Amino acid sequence: MFKKILFATSATEACDHAARVAFDMARRYHAHIDVFHVLGVPTRGYSQVVVDLTTGDEVTLDDNYRDLVKEEIRSYYDHQIQTTDDFAITVTIGHPHREILRIARAEKPDIIVMGGSTGASGSYAHKKAATGSTFQRVAKAAHFPVLVINRPAASFWGGFSNVVFATDFSDAADHAFAFAFKLVKELNCEFHLFHALDITCFQTDNFHTQDTIDDQIRNAIAQIRFRYVSKMGDFKPYAMEVWEGIPFVEIVKYAREKQADLIIMAYNTRQTDDPEASIGSVAEQVILRANCPVISINRSVGKE
Among 18, 54, 16, 14, which residue's Cα sits nearest to residue 6? Predict the structure, then answer.
Protein backbone atom coordinates (compact mmCIF):
# COMPACT_ATOMS: atom_id res chain seq x y z
CA MET A 1 0.00 0.00 0.00
CA PHE A 2 2.76 2.42 0.96
CA LYS A 3 6.02 1.61 -0.83
CA LYS A 4 7.10 5.13 -1.74
CA ILE A 5 6.65 8.06 0.66
CA LEU A 6 7.36 11.70 -0.12
CA PHE A 7 7.99 13.58 3.12
CA ALA A 8 7.98 17.33 2.48
CA THR A 9 9.67 19.13 5.35
CA SER A 10 11.08 22.43 6.49
CA ALA A 11 13.48 20.48 8.74
CA THR A 12 12.34 22.48 11.75
CA GLU A 13 10.35 21.71 14.88
CA ALA A 14 7.19 22.59 12.96
CA CYS A 15 7.55 19.32 11.03
CA ASP A 16 8.73 17.09 13.86
CA HIS A 17 5.29 15.51 14.38
CA ALA A 18 4.95 14.85 10.64
CA ALA A 19 8.46 13.37 10.58
CA ARG A 20 7.54 10.96 13.36
CA VAL A 21 4.65 9.59 11.30
CA ALA A 22 6.51 9.60 7.95
CA PHE A 23 9.52 7.66 9.22
CA ASP A 24 7.35 5.30 11.23
CA MET A 25 5.35 4.53 8.07
CA ALA A 26 8.58 3.90 6.16
CA ARG A 27 9.74 1.38 8.79
CA ARG A 28 6.35 -0.23 9.32
CA TYR A 29 5.59 -0.74 5.62
CA HIS A 30 9.21 -1.19 4.43
CA ALA A 31 8.86 1.83 2.18
CA HIS A 32 11.32 4.15 0.48
CA ILE A 33 11.11 7.63 1.96
CA ASP A 34 12.22 10.73 0.08
CA VAL A 35 12.94 13.58 2.50
CA PHE A 36 12.23 16.64 0.38
CA HIS A 37 13.18 20.19 1.33
CA VAL A 38 12.77 23.47 -0.52
CA LEU A 39 15.53 25.61 0.89
CA GLY A 40 14.69 28.96 -0.68
CA VAL A 41 13.03 31.08 -3.34
CA PRO A 42 15.17 32.82 -6.00
CA THR A 43 15.15 36.57 -5.52
CA ARG A 44 14.57 37.05 -9.26
CA GLY A 45 14.44 34.82 -12.31
CA TYR A 46 17.22 32.24 -12.26
CA SER A 47 19.34 34.17 -9.77
CA GLN A 48 21.70 32.19 -7.52
CA VAL A 49 20.68 34.44 -4.65
CA VAL A 50 17.76 32.86 -2.80
CA VAL A 51 15.64 33.81 0.18
CA ASP A 52 15.93 31.13 2.86
CA LEU A 53 12.39 29.98 3.62
CA THR A 54 13.09 29.35 7.28
CA THR A 55 14.98 32.48 8.25
CA GLY A 56 14.12 34.94 5.47
CA ASP A 57 17.84 35.67 4.90
CA GLU A 58 19.32 36.02 1.42
CA VAL A 59 21.98 33.42 0.65
CA THR A 60 24.06 32.59 -2.43
CA LEU A 61 23.28 29.10 -3.70
CA ASP A 62 26.04 26.84 -4.97
CA ASP A 63 26.81 23.12 -4.74
CA ASN A 64 28.61 23.53 -1.44
CA TYR A 65 25.67 25.32 0.14
CA ARG A 66 23.23 22.72 -1.21
CA ASP A 67 25.37 19.90 0.21
CA LEU A 68 25.58 21.73 3.52
CA VAL A 69 21.80 21.95 3.73
CA LYS A 70 21.45 18.24 2.89
CA GLU A 71 23.94 17.38 5.62
CA GLU A 72 22.03 19.56 8.10
CA ILE A 73 18.81 17.73 7.22
CA ARG A 74 20.50 14.36 7.61
CA SER A 75 21.82 15.45 11.00
CA TYR A 76 18.43 16.82 12.05
CA TYR A 77 16.72 13.49 11.29
CA ASP A 78 19.70 11.35 12.30
CA HIS A 79 17.77 9.33 14.87
CA GLN A 80 15.01 8.39 12.40
CA ILE A 81 17.44 7.79 9.53
CA GLN A 82 19.48 5.33 11.60
CA THR A 83 16.46 3.04 11.75
CA THR A 84 15.42 3.55 8.11
CA ASP A 85 16.80 1.25 5.42
CA ASP A 86 15.72 3.04 2.24
CA PHE A 87 15.80 6.83 2.10
CA ALA A 88 16.96 9.78 0.03
CA ILE A 89 17.35 13.47 0.78
CA THR A 90 16.46 15.93 -1.96
CA VAL A 91 17.00 19.67 -1.75
CA THR A 92 15.84 22.23 -4.28
CA ILE A 93 14.83 25.87 -4.66
CA GLY A 94 11.57 27.45 -5.72
CA HIS A 95 8.13 28.02 -4.29
CA PRO A 96 7.48 25.11 -1.90
CA HIS A 97 4.05 24.01 -3.09
CA ARG A 98 5.10 24.07 -6.74
CA GLU A 99 8.26 22.09 -6.08
CA ILE A 100 6.43 19.51 -3.97
CA LEU A 101 3.85 19.05 -6.72
CA ARG A 102 6.64 18.85 -9.32
CA ILE A 103 8.59 16.11 -7.55
CA ALA A 104 5.34 14.24 -6.81
CA ARG A 105 4.48 14.19 -10.51
CA ALA A 106 7.98 12.92 -11.30
CA GLU A 107 8.33 10.33 -8.53
CA LYS A 108 4.66 9.27 -8.20
CA PRO A 109 4.70 8.51 -4.47
CA ASP A 110 2.01 6.42 -2.83
CA ILE A 111 1.48 9.25 -0.37
CA ILE A 112 2.75 12.76 0.43
CA VAL A 113 3.33 13.44 4.13
CA MET A 114 3.43 17.01 5.40
CA GLY A 115 3.14 19.03 8.55
CA GLY A 116 0.54 21.76 8.83
CA SER A 117 3.12 24.49 9.41
CA THR A 118 6.21 25.64 7.56
CA GLY A 119 8.30 26.59 10.56
CA ALA A 120 9.05 30.18 9.54
CA SER A 121 9.37 32.67 12.34
CA GLY A 122 9.13 36.37 13.03
CA SER A 123 7.95 38.92 10.46
CA TYR A 124 8.83 36.59 7.60
CA ALA A 125 6.35 34.02 8.92
CA HIS A 126 3.64 36.68 8.85
CA LYS A 127 4.59 37.59 5.28
CA LYS A 128 4.40 33.93 4.25
CA ALA A 129 1.06 33.42 5.98
CA ALA A 130 -0.47 36.11 3.79
CA THR A 131 0.30 34.06 0.66
CA GLY A 132 -1.39 30.92 1.94
CA SER A 133 -0.17 27.70 3.48
CA THR A 134 1.96 25.23 1.57
CA PHE A 135 -0.04 22.22 2.73
CA GLN A 136 -3.27 23.91 1.61
CA ARG A 137 -1.94 24.45 -1.90
CA VAL A 138 -0.47 20.98 -2.19
CA ALA A 139 -3.67 19.34 -0.94
CA LYS A 140 -5.66 21.38 -3.42
CA ALA A 141 -3.72 20.33 -6.53
CA ALA A 142 -2.01 17.01 -5.74
CA HIS A 143 -2.76 13.93 -7.84
CA PHE A 144 -1.77 11.77 -4.87
CA PRO A 145 -3.08 11.30 -1.32
CA VAL A 146 -1.81 13.98 1.05
CA LEU A 147 -1.41 13.06 4.71
CA VAL A 148 -1.18 16.10 6.97
CA ILE A 149 -0.21 15.92 10.64
CA ASN A 150 -0.89 19.33 12.10
CA ARG A 151 -1.10 18.66 15.83
CA PRO A 152 1.56 16.92 17.93
CA ALA A 153 -1.10 14.60 19.39
CA ALA A 154 -1.74 13.22 15.91
CA SER A 155 1.81 11.88 15.65
CA PHE A 156 1.58 9.41 18.51
CA TRP A 157 0.04 6.40 16.84
CA GLY A 158 0.55 2.70 16.30
CA GLY A 159 -0.15 2.30 12.62
CA PHE A 160 -3.41 2.31 10.74
CA SER A 161 -6.00 -0.02 12.26
CA ASN A 162 -9.11 2.11 12.83
CA VAL A 163 -10.07 4.35 9.90
CA VAL A 164 -12.83 6.94 9.54
CA PHE A 165 -13.96 7.80 6.03
CA ALA A 166 -15.87 11.10 6.06
CA THR A 167 -18.05 11.71 3.01
CA ASP A 168 -20.08 14.55 1.56
CA PHE A 169 -21.31 12.33 -1.31
CA SER A 170 -19.34 14.31 -3.89
CA ASP A 171 -17.44 12.83 -6.82
CA ALA A 172 -14.24 13.62 -4.93
CA ALA A 173 -15.57 11.63 -1.98
CA ASP A 174 -16.05 8.64 -4.30
CA HIS A 175 -12.32 8.82 -5.13
CA ALA A 176 -11.52 9.10 -1.42
CA PHE A 177 -13.66 6.04 -0.70
CA ALA A 178 -11.86 3.96 -3.34
CA PHE A 179 -8.53 4.78 -1.67
CA ALA A 180 -9.91 4.27 1.85
CA PHE A 181 -11.45 0.89 1.06
CA LYS A 182 -8.26 -0.34 -0.59
CA LEU A 183 -6.32 0.70 2.51
CA VAL A 184 -8.62 -0.93 5.06
CA LYS A 185 -8.70 -4.18 3.08
CA GLU A 186 -4.92 -4.38 2.67
CA LEU A 187 -4.15 -3.38 6.25
CA ASN A 188 -7.11 -5.21 7.84
CA CYS A 189 -8.53 -2.12 9.52
CA GLU A 190 -11.85 -1.34 11.15
CA PHE A 191 -13.76 0.93 8.78
CA HIS A 192 -16.16 3.68 9.84
CA LEU A 193 -18.22 5.37 7.11
CA PHE A 194 -19.46 8.73 8.35
CA HIS A 195 -21.50 11.63 7.03
CA ALA A 196 -22.05 14.91 8.87
CA LEU A 197 -25.41 16.44 7.94
CA ASP A 198 -24.72 20.16 7.60
CA ILE A 199 -27.29 22.19 9.55
CA THR A 200 -25.30 25.43 9.48
CA CYS A 201 -27.24 26.58 6.41
CA PHE A 202 -30.51 26.58 8.31
CA GLN A 203 -31.88 30.10 8.61
CA THR A 204 -32.91 31.38 12.03
CA ASP A 205 -36.39 32.11 10.69
CA ASN A 206 -36.72 28.77 8.91
CA PHE A 207 -35.70 26.01 11.32
CA HIS A 208 -36.00 22.47 10.06
CA THR A 209 -38.12 20.24 12.23
CA GLN A 210 -36.51 17.24 13.86
CA ASP A 211 -38.65 15.03 11.64
CA THR A 212 -37.09 16.69 8.58
CA ILE A 213 -33.60 16.20 9.99
CA ASP A 214 -34.36 12.56 10.78
CA ASP A 215 -35.58 12.06 7.20
CA GLN A 216 -32.33 13.55 5.87
CA ILE A 217 -30.33 11.28 8.15
CA ARG A 218 -32.20 8.22 6.88
CA ASN A 219 -31.62 9.36 3.29
CA ALA A 220 -27.90 9.80 4.01
CA ILE A 221 -27.65 6.29 5.50
CA ALA A 222 -29.36 4.95 2.38
CA GLN A 223 -26.81 6.80 0.24
CA ILE A 224 -23.94 5.29 2.21
CA ARG A 225 -25.37 1.81 1.66
CA PHE A 226 -25.95 2.37 -2.04
CA ARG A 227 -22.84 4.39 -2.84
CA TYR A 228 -20.24 2.59 -0.73
CA VAL A 229 -21.37 -0.52 1.14
CA SER A 230 -22.67 -2.06 -2.09
CA LYS A 231 -19.07 -1.99 -3.38
CA MET A 232 -17.53 -3.64 -0.33
CA GLY A 233 -18.48 -7.25 -1.06
CA ASP A 234 -18.11 -9.48 1.98
CA PHE A 235 -15.95 -7.00 3.92
CA LYS A 236 -17.39 -7.07 7.45
CA PRO A 237 -15.51 -4.90 9.97
CA TYR A 238 -17.36 -1.69 9.15
CA ALA A 239 -19.90 0.65 10.69
CA MET A 240 -21.81 3.64 9.32
CA GLU A 241 -23.27 6.65 11.05
CA VAL A 242 -24.77 10.03 10.24
CA TRP A 243 -24.72 12.91 12.69
CA GLU A 244 -26.15 16.40 12.27
CA GLY A 245 -24.25 19.55 13.12
CA ILE A 246 -21.27 21.55 11.89
CA PRO A 247 -19.47 19.10 9.57
CA PHE A 248 -15.86 19.59 10.68
CA VAL A 249 -16.86 19.53 14.35
CA GLU A 250 -18.85 16.33 13.95
CA ILE A 251 -16.09 14.61 11.94
CA VAL A 252 -13.48 15.41 14.59
CA LYS A 253 -15.84 14.37 17.42
CA TYR A 254 -16.74 11.12 15.70
CA ALA A 255 -13.11 10.22 15.02
CA ARG A 256 -12.24 10.95 18.65
CA GLU A 257 -15.16 8.86 19.93
CA LYS A 258 -14.15 5.92 17.73
CA GLN A 259 -10.49 6.36 18.72
CA ALA A 260 -9.59 6.52 15.04
CA ASP A 261 -5.94 6.58 14.03
CA LEU A 262 -6.69 7.97 10.56
CA ILE A 263 -9.32 10.13 8.86
CA ILE A 264 -9.72 9.95 5.08
CA MET A 265 -11.82 12.52 3.27
CA ALA A 266 -12.23 14.36 0.02
CA TYR A 267 -10.35 17.61 -0.24
CA ASN A 268 -13.51 19.37 -1.37
CA THR A 269 -16.37 19.01 -3.83
CA ARG A 270 -15.09 21.24 -6.60
CA GLN A 271 -12.28 20.08 -8.86
CA THR A 272 -9.62 22.53 -9.91
CA ASP A 273 -6.02 22.43 -11.08
CA ASP A 274 -5.30 25.88 -9.66
CA PRO A 275 -2.76 25.40 -6.85
CA GLU A 276 -3.24 29.02 -5.79
CA ALA A 277 -6.81 28.43 -4.65
CA SER A 278 -7.47 28.01 -0.92
CA ILE A 279 -8.34 24.71 0.72
CA GLY A 280 -11.92 23.61 1.32
CA SER A 281 -12.96 24.85 4.76
CA VAL A 282 -14.21 21.49 6.11
CA ALA A 283 -11.03 19.62 5.18
CA GLU A 284 -8.85 22.41 6.52
CA GLN A 285 -10.66 22.57 9.84
CA VAL A 286 -10.52 18.79 10.27
CA ILE A 287 -6.77 18.83 9.55
CA LEU A 288 -6.23 21.63 12.05
CA ARG A 289 -8.28 20.01 14.83
CA ALA A 290 -8.06 16.23 14.51
CA ASN A 291 -6.13 14.15 17.04
CA CYS A 292 -5.06 11.74 14.31
CA PRO A 293 -3.49 12.08 10.84
CA VAL A 294 -5.78 13.17 8.02
CA ILE A 295 -5.47 12.01 4.40
CA SER A 296 -6.93 14.42 1.88
CA ILE A 297 -7.82 13.23 -1.63
CA ASN A 298 -9.20 15.40 -4.40
CA ARG A 299 -9.30 13.11 -7.43
CA SER A 300 -8.77 9.54 -8.56
CA VAL A 301 -5.46 8.51 -7.00
CA GLY A 302 -2.56 8.48 -9.42
CA LYS A 303 -4.53 9.95 -12.35
CA GLU A 304 -2.90 12.77 -14.24
Answer: 18
pLDDT tens sequence across 246-284:
999 999 999 999 999 999 999 864 444 444 444 457 888
Could you give the CA distance from residue 240 to residue 245 in angstroms, rounded to a whole number? 17
Q: What residue numbers bound the domain in which 17 lies?
A: 4-155
Provide mean pLDDT across the span 148-168. Answer: 81
Whether residues 129 and 199 fall in one domain:
no
Residues 249 and 282 in one domain: yes
CA dist 17 and 178 (Å) reads 27
Nearest CA among 16, 23, 32, 34 for reference residue 76: 16
The letter for the amino acid at 32 is H
Residues 6+ apart with CB under 8 A from 82: none
Distance CA 11, CA 119 (A): 8
Task: Please give the backbone phi and psi of residue 58, each rounded to the nearest 5 degrees, phi first.
Answer: -90, 130
Q: How many domains does the chain have?
A: 2
∠90-263-105 over CA atoms, to 5°? 30
What pLDDT digit, counting tens, does each position of 5-63 carry? 999 998 888 899 999 999 999 999 999 999 999 987 776 655 676 766 666 667 767 77
CATH of the domain at 62: 3.40.50.620
